[in-house]
Amino acid sequence: MEVEWLITLTNNSLFGTRPLTQDEKFQLRTLYLAFGQEEIDWLAEREAVTRHDVKAVEYLVRDRLSTLGLDRIAELTHFACTSEDINSLAYALTVKRAICEVWLPAYRGVIEKLRALALQHADAPMLARTHGQPATPTTMGKELGVFVWRLERVLAQLEKGEYLGKFSGATGTWSAHLAAEPRVAWPNLAREFVEALGLTFNPLTTQIESHDWQVELYDRVRHAGGILHNLATDVWTYISLGYFAQIPVAGATGSSTMPHKINPIRFENAEANLELSSALLSSLAQTLVTSRLQRDLTDSTTQRNIGVALGHSLLALDNLTRGLGEISLSRDVLLADLDANWEVLGEAIQTVVRAEVTAGRSSISDPYALLKELTRGRRVGPEDLAEFVRGLDIGEEAKQRLLELTPATYTGLAEQLTRSKL
């Protein structure tokens, strides 16, 4: 930021300067393009004296200007800037790159892995378990598709997010700028400078950029993490039910004492990292939204943990991608589970009876109570239900539809929904 601001000032020939040559610009930009351990050590030594990180950076730039024979523009280093002018842009660029170049590709990778599984298993009937109890059947593909749908909504919000920066001086008023040169349209120059970096310009701030864009971003990443956490716990549960078998990995140990086990560690690891990430992202969002009066330094310490928060989330994304690639659907287990729970057809029967009553083809007074008495708290098999349906006071067409129904075929539009919406 310091280097690019110098180049911008000289490009505009301010204060009697001339634009730098292409070679001079290249040499100056090498300062950050080739930034490494030598510069880190140099800064650490100066910061031990200055007790101020950005001031140390300013001294580094001045030192390199002297080395390059550009002492004539040394006084334009950090010109009219407050530290937050530099830091707000540096953080915005860093976070934008972290999200757009690292985190979002990993997030999209989980979505695509999940989409492939959802489409592959769109037609795989499965007993639903609302409140943990046997419920109206669905398909595994549709349930995984719900997560795809949810994750893509947050993805759209993340892709539209802004990354803001300010460049307006000590209290956001361009006071020093105008004192030095009142004829320059400093807000316009600052906007051009910020937008040239691929960032959104914030024209109205205190000493700091208000961090609202960061609050929005971290809340969305945290929201995505919450959905992913839900995915991890659901897949873990499906594994525990035997719906998914884990594919053995050569040489891997599932348990130190029980050789038969393959522990669902990918999903457990994802859970833990998402919980840590969520805690940090929530703290970031809560802290960064507030700054006392025109400036305090709580944000400075807080922002040093952005990478930690995103790092835990990235670990979770990696584990989810790996975990989803190491499971295989046990369709036979799903079908056996369905066949052991014929009572879930009670919903279909009582709904059909109600329709028949409304159409004048039945005189049954309370269809729900009738089915509750038959199915609640007890197991019923196909023969029990068939006998019950044959004795119902309903039309023959409706009766035949019910007799042909099985738990495995009572999945409504689950397959069509999955294929049409994904």
TrEMBL record:
Keyword set includes Lyase: yes
Transmembrane segments: none
GO biological process: one example: IMP biosynthetic process
Keywords of this entry: Lyase, Purine biosynthesis
Domain Adenylosuccinate lyase PurB C-terminal residues, every copy: 291-411
InterPro entries tied to this protein: Fumarase/histidase_N, Fumarate_lyase_CS, Fumarate_lyase_fam, Fumarate_lyase_N, L-Aspartase-like, PurB_bact, PurB_C
Entry GO MF terms: N6-(1,2-dicarboxyethyl)AMP AMP-lyase (fumarate-forming) activity
Pathway per the UniProt entry: Purine metabolism; IMP biosynthesis via de novo pathway; 5-amino-1-(5-phospho-D-ribosyl)imidazole-4-carboxamide from 5-amino-1-(5-phospho-D-ribosyl)imidazole-4-carboxylate: step 2/2; Purine metabolism; AMP biosynthesis via de novo pathway; AMP from IMP: step 2/2
One family name in Pfam for this protein: ASL_C
Ranges for domain Fumarate lyase N-terminal: 53-270
Main function: Catalyzes two reactions in de novo purine nucleotide biosynthesis. Catalyzes the breakdown of 5-aminoimidazole- (N-succinylocarboxamide) ribotide (SAICAR or 2-[5-amino-1-(5-phospho-beta-D-ribosyl)imidazole-4-carboxamido]succinate) to 5-aminoimidazole-4-carboxamide ribotide (AICAR or 5-amino-1-(5-phospho-beta-D-ribosyl)imidazole-4-carboxamide) and fumarate, and of adenylosuccinate (ADS or N(6)-(1,2-dicarboxyethyl)-AMP) to adenosine monophosphate (AMP) and fumarate.
PANTHER family the record matches: ADENYLOSUCCINATE LYASE (PTHR43411:SF1)
Name the record gives this protein: Adenylosuccinate lyase
